[in-house]
Amino acid sequence: MTLVGFMQASNVTVYSGSWRYPSAAPDYLDLRYYQRIARVLEEGTFDLMFFDDRLAMPSIYGNSPGEAVRYGARPIKLDLTAVLGAAAAATSHLGLGATYSTTYYPPFHVARAFATLDHLSGGRAAWNVVTSVNDSEARNYGIGEHLGHDERYDRAEEFIEVVGKLWDSWEDGAILGERETGIFADPGKVHELDHRGRYFSVQGPLTVPRPPQGRPPIIQAGQSGRGRKFAARWADLIFTADPDREIALEHYREQKELVAAEGRDTEKVRLLPMAYTIVGETETIAKEKEAVFLDQLVHPMASLTLLSEVMNHDFSGHSLDDLVTDELINSVTGMRGLVQGVKRHVGDQPLTLRTLAGHRATLLQGPRFVGTGAQVADQMQDWFESRSCDGFVIAATHLPGAFEDFVRLAVPELRKRGIFRDAYTGKTLRENLGLARPASCFSAG
């Protein structure tokens, strides 16, 4: 079972009410906050600490960031380079993943950032490739016109090819370090790309030698048809948002078929649904905590603000109690899929914006495993052994307590059943994921 700790470099977790929980740590602007959490995840032998990212405050609602700031709806996003560097310094084995957009960064920048992290962490970097286009982010980066959905993926295809070549541009063994002769490196093993493509022109070589992993693992979470094909071609870890096991079973089968069609080993590409875990010393304690998270901590306006952000549509002209009509669904790109997903939770009944928005901001986004450590392990084992997934992206209800409870109470149960590691066996993230180190495209023949 692969386990990933889902993080935000922020005042909140992916659960937008987390900052209000009484024991939530308030020092999220201090590097020691992220180091503490990283050490907890490493104690639990998680594969990866992964950071989601956005490049703007939520400001689609009312064309203003005011409500996001007022209710703490993810207004803070620290730069991940510094955060991951701090986590790397505090750990020895834990993988370190981050989101970098193919829309707002150039390939050279992304290649250098992750190659540097991979070296400084001893081979533990991973890159989450996103093509996200959001009006708030676009305004921060001076982008007026967005590419269409499929063209964004066309651009991402070329982007990731260029990044891979940049990582390969120094062959293994290029650095000689011959002090006596004064020869530092073999120029025959350091390659210019001279890439001239539809979207990018990149000379190269990269200013960082080849990463310890060769190429850091790729994460992807595309849910559209094109997104799933992109993930099948490139991703080592595919994050999903399947609300129940039956849907996850179907998604798992379909995605593995796409991976096979790309000529890749389906056992080496892992599908990982996001899941909340609420673990208590007793079932009663766990369910009491669940009730607090479901009912008390997320302000409805924070939910609506985040719905506006994820849909890239301003809902400020609507009331929370307005019905989600066919007219509204047809007017908002991508809303039909969200509505269908929510109806899998609540049944085929009239939806209000309050219910739809709550789905995005509360614990309704994915499966929720609640109970004692043994009960949570039972639920996870059921998903895993039914081939609904290859592991989980564990989303925290609050930090650091949610991960501390999971590591203390659930991880020993998973280990006892033989479905999760007792210790790290590799030095790099690739090794711990059972992935071979790829050959350089310049030296493979």
From TrEMBL:
<dbReference type="GO" id="GO:0016705">
    <property type="term" value="F:oxidoreductase activity, acting on paired donors, with incorporation or reduction of molecular oxygen"/>
</dbReference>
<dbReference type="InterPro" id="IPR051260">
    <property type="entry name" value="Diverse_substr_monoxygenases"/>
</dbReference>
<dbReference type="InterPro" id="IPR011251">
    <property type="entry name" value="Luciferase-like_dom"/>
</dbReference>
<feature type="binding site">
    <location>
        <position position="153"/>
    </location>
    <ligand>
        <name>FMN</name>
    </ligand>
</feature>
<feature type="binding site">
    <location>
        <position position="99"/>
    </location>
    <ligand>
        <name>FMN</name>
    </ligand>
</feature>
<keyword id="KW-0503">Monooxygenase</keyword>
<comment type="similarity">
    <text>Belongs to the NtaA/SnaA/DszA monooxygenase family.</text>
</comment>
<feature type="binding site">
    <location>
        <position position="53"/>
    </location>
    <ligand>
        <name>FMN</name>
    </ligand>
</feature>
<keyword id="KW-0288">FMN</keyword>
<feature type="binding site">
    <location>
        <position position="149"/>
    </location>
    <ligand>
        <name>FMN</name>
    </ligand>
</feature>
<keyword id="KW-0560">Oxidoreductase</keyword>
<protein>
    <submittedName>
        <fullName>LLM class flavin-dependent oxidoreductase</fullName>
    </submittedName>
</protein>
<feature type="domain" description="Luciferase-like">
    <location>
        <begin position="29"/>
        <end position="385"/>
    </location>
</feature>
<feature type="binding site">
    <location>
        <position position="224"/>
    </location>
    <ligand>
        <name>FMN</name>
    </ligand>
</feature>
<dbReference type="InterPro" id="IPR016215">
    <property type="entry name" value="NTA_MOA"/>
</dbReference>
<dbReference type="InterPro" id="IPR036661">
    <property type="entry name" value="Luciferase-like_sf"/>
</dbReference>
<dbReference type="Pfam" id="PF00296">
    <property type="entry name" value="Bac_luciferase"/>
</dbReference>
<dbReference type="GO" id="GO:0004497">
    <property type="term" value="F:monooxygenase activity"/>
</dbReference>
<keyword id="KW-0285">Flavoprotein</keyword>
